[in-house]
Design brief:
heterodimer; A: 559 residues; alpha/beta; Rossmann fold; six-stranded mixed beta sheet; B: mainly alpha; MetI-like fold; 2 domains; 12 helices; 78% helix; elongated
């Protein structure tokens, strides 16, 4: 068997350069690997490591202002960048399928999903004896979409995130390709949906024997699907090995760092002091919430008429948070956890219920609360890209709360900005930068510094890690713990990721459809969960060391 | 909503015309008027009534479908303006038929060649047309095509047209003037929104699916880029309704724009009101159509 038959794709000493503000810079530097027939290769690395650039080059796509600086990409022995455009078009979609990172943005909004799958069959002249429509329904069925014929007539926005990703997978497999390139296919999804998608991919791989290149920053999910994993750092391939040995005997320092950063439900992260057990020192409650109900349902015309029964997004939730501790609200999207956060922060008016802060009942909306109470409750949002004003410098972002809550002169303010930046472990010189000049993790640090500027007692963290790489997540969590110890902060920490909060929060409340299905201290709740929903969430946490076969053999649960 | 707008517009126009000095009787009789003949004419034209009375009379007649009688021409207003409306509708219709494909085509060409020669060349021309007022464009076209090259007639006296071919020759210059002024904005808007769409993940996805370029452009990119251009078109049509007055004046075109100008100088209030009602109605209708089109194009709004 010659090399070109044995391998679906070979990347030989590939270099890619990007043209940026400061001339050309090398994003991918001499990367070589190959993907064997039927093999799934994982490509891991942080954002900016060049892994996505490599993945796109496998399809002959140069992203943005980039050019191939050297090397080759061979698909079935043929050089993809030397191919005429026509030939490339026949390989794309037909022989190489693609599953994008963000299915919502990657499906054409004005076109029915069935049509988007069908056009691939038509344009690649795939013979479909049963007719295009029937084949599309078959494909949708094979990726686990209920009522496939009906779903085919839907527009992308009418499907849930998980279903959109299933449609994208059906699309990638429509022409029975030899290779599928997956670009962070589960990153934007809930943990449970993530798990189901991974199971689906493992199943499809076994049934069709398709080869895969799976790009992700999340080593844990790579481990479940891939036989081999390659790790990239700053444009270079630092290590490639079969999955089991990579996790057991990582050779490179960077790989070890990545593995250590994975949140583990079974053991605390390295250097973790261990969360102080809850309830023993009986600290007073800082935040008490009683029978909170939030509703977005509108009453009938002009506000008259009854609310439809069960319309509340949050259905009578009560809990309390002790001073200096962390309470984690866990749940999937739509469970109401962000609505609780917004009600506590005074951003949304609850329909019913009381919120007491240090014993004082709070007014519903932030603008009705006295200044000193507003100052003591701060919120950090999920996406620092949109929560920081892109036109302002870090200095003016941090100065605003200082001017609002404090009486500092210009020099004092300047000193305080530097102090805040140091508190979040950023160079004080960053004060002159604007958000777009920072990385995602640095931006989230600035957002934390902004919350600290008000000198708060309670910080609400609304999914603040979900837009970040796993290794950056770990460092932000560490920072939050340090700040808690130094300043006695109390956190209301909202997340969908159990493994993240396992060692970080003393108390945990698991939300499902607007109500707690479990609440208590983290240790006991997670070691002996009583509700099936919690068990399901625990089950969905990726376990390292689980073989891909194990993930596939488990029958898929569909709601 | 539309009815309230129409009512408000009619009241404002009526009041504005009232503010102008003189009345229709004075304009008709001119310098030879004696106080007696003026009083007599005012009596026949109902001008002796107070302004609010005349407005309410006009309004109640309108509700029964009667636009009144032209004070100057002594003919029912509707008869009087119908042929003019038809002429203007013809001109606007031709302009729209040319405008839509030209704007889309130029927008697409500039967007897919962004930063290259074709984009720069078209963008410069478009910017020039954006800056020039339409009467300058009109006069420019007349001096080039009618006077220098003598290809087309300078005036659009379509009453003298001999068959369809002749009609096309007569209205070619005013049509081009309107299209040039209108397309400028639409081309830029089309270019911007298409560039944004071409950078989107779904267009990348469509290319990575191995679809031919034309398919990606026409089925994945264009339908999602048209929204802003349609909204601009609605504003353009609104402009056209007013701008047509100027263009008609330049080319001596017998449309409602010229009739409006003439009627104002004669203080022919019923005609002025009728024309403004037609214009406002057309404006509201185009906005409604644009909104419906945008909703039809975007399944999320459906």
């Amino acid at each position: 068997m010659t090399a070109s038959q044995q391998f679906v794709a070979q990347v030989k000493n590939l270099s890619v350069d990007y043209h940026g503000d400061r001339g050309w810079s090398r994003a991918v530097d001499g990367v070589s690997f190959e993907i064997a027939n039927g093999e799934a290769l994982g490509l891991a690395g942080e954002s900016g490591s060049g892994k996505t650039t490599v993945a796109y080059s496998l399809m002959g796509e140069r992203r943005g202002a980039s050019s191939v600086g050297g090397g080759q990409v061979l698909f079935r022995g043929r050089d993809i960048f030397a191919m005429p455009e026509r030939e490339l078009t026949t390989i794309r979609g037909r022989s190489i399928g693609f599953v994008p990172q963000n299915p919502m943005a990657s499906l054409t909004p004005s076109m029915k999903v069935g049509h988007q799958i069908g056009e691939m069959l038509t344009f690649h002249s795939v013979p479909v004896p049963q007719g295009t429509q029937a084949r599309v329904a078959e494909l949708l069925d094979s990726v686990g979409i209920p009522q496939p014929a009906k779903a085919a007539r839907r527009y992308p926005h009418e499907l849930s995130g998980g279903q959109q990703q299933r449609v994208a997978i059906a699309m990638a497999l429509a022409c029975r390709p030899d290779l599928v390139v997956l670009d962070e296919p589960t990153t934007g999804l809930d943990v449970t949906t993530q798990k189901r998608i991974l199971q689906l991919l493992a199943e499809l791989k076994r049934e069709t024997g398709v080869s895969m290149l799976y790009v992700s920053h999340d080593l844990a999910s790579l481990a479940q699907l891939c036989e081999r994993v390659a790790v990239m750092q700053k444009g270079r391939l630092v290590e490639a090995a079969d999955t089991a040995s990579l996790f057991e005997r990582p050779q490179h320092d960077y790989t070890r760092k990545l593995i250590a950063a994975i949140p583990r439900i079974d053991r605390p992260p390295a250097g973790h002091p261990g969360a102080t057990p809850a309830g023993e020192d009986e600290a007073p409650n800082l935040l008490e919430i009683e029978n909170l109900r939030v509703s977005y349902a509108r009453r009938g015309l002009l506000g008259f008429g009854k609310l439809p029964a069960g319309a509340d997004t949050v259905k009578g939730v009560s809990f309390s948070v002790q001073r200096g501790q962390t309470f984690a609200l866990i749940g999937e999207s739509g469970s109401g956890k962000s609505s609780i956060a917004r009600a506590v922060a005074g951003l949304a008016r609850p329909r019913l219920g009381t919120i007491r802060f240090a014993g004082t009942p709070l007014a519903a909306l932030a603008r009705q609360r006295p200044l000193h109470l507003r100052q003591k409750i701060q919120i950090i949002f999920q996406n620092p890209d949109s929560s920081l004003n892109p036109r302002k410098t870090v200095r003016s972002i941090l100065s605003r709360p200082l001017g609002m809550f404090g009486r500092l002169d210009a020099a004092g303010r300047e000193a305080r900005v530097a102090e805040l930046l140091q508190a979040v472990r950023l160079d004080p010189a960053y004060a002159d930068r604007r958000p777009h000049q920072l990385s995602g993790g640095e931006r989230q640090r600035v957002a934390i510094a902004r919350a600290l500027a008000a000198d708060p007692e309670l910080i609400i963290c609304d999914e603040i890690l979900s837009a970040l790489d796993v290794s950056v997540q770990a460092s932000i969590l560490q920072l939050l713990e340090t700040l808690q110890r130094e300043r006695g902060l109390t956190y209301l920490f909202i997340s969908h990721d159990l493994a993240v909060v396992r060692w970080f929060a003393q108390q945990i409340g698991v939300l499902s459809r607007g109500a707690f299905c479990e609440i208590g201290d983290t240790e006991t709740t997670l070691s002996a969960p009583s509700s099936p929903y919690t068990m399901q969430l625990l089950d969905a946490v990726p376990r390292i060391g689980a073989s891909p076969a194990a993930a596939a053999s488990e029958p898929e649960r569909r709601p | 909503m539309a009815l309230i707008s129409l009512l408000a517009v009619s009241a404002i126009i009526f009041w504005c015309v009232e503010l102008l000095p003189g009345d229709a009787a004075e304009r008709i009789l001119g310098r030879n008027a004696t106080p007696e003949s003026l009083a007599l004419l005012r009596e026949t034209l109902n001008l002796h009534l107070s302004a609010p009375e005349r407005y309410l009379t006009w309004l109640s007649n309108l509700l029964s479908g009667d636009f009144g009688t032209s004070l100057v021409a002594d003919r029912p207003v509707l008869d009087y303006i119908a042929s003019r409306i038809a002429n203007t509708a013809l001109l606007s219709g031709f302009a729209l038929i040319l405008y839509i494909p030209i704007s889309i085509a130029l927008g697409v060409i500039t967007a897919i060649n962004r930063g290259r020669m074709a984009d720069h060349a078209i963008s410069v021309v478009v910017l020039i047309f954006m800056c020039l007022p339409e009467f300058v464009i009109g006069i420019l076209l007349i001096s080039i095509f009618a006077i220098k090259l003598a290809w087309l007639p300078p005036l659009a006296l379509i009453g003298q047209a001999n068959g369809f071919g002749d009609l096309l020759r007569l209205i070619a210059l005013p049509t081009i003037t309107i299209v040039a002024a209108m397309s400028a904005y639409a081309v830029r808007m089309m270019r911007e929104s298409l560039i944004e769409v071409l950078d989107s993940s779904y267009v990348l996805m469509a290319r990575l699916k191995g679809l031919p370029t034309w398919r990606v452009l026409l089925f994945h990119a264009l339908p999602n880029a048209l929204g802003p251009a349609i909204n601009i078109t609605a504003l353009n049509v609104a402009w056209m309704i007013g701008g047509v007055v100027v263009v008609e004046a330049v080319f001596e075109f017998p449309g409602i724009g010229r009739l409006m100008v003439d009627s104002i100088s004669h203080k022919d209030v019923p005609v002025i009101l009728a024309i403004s009602m037609v214009m406002t109605g057309a404006y509201i209708a185009t906005n409604l159509i644009a909104d419906v089109l945008v909703i039809l194009l975007n399944p999320k709004l459906r």
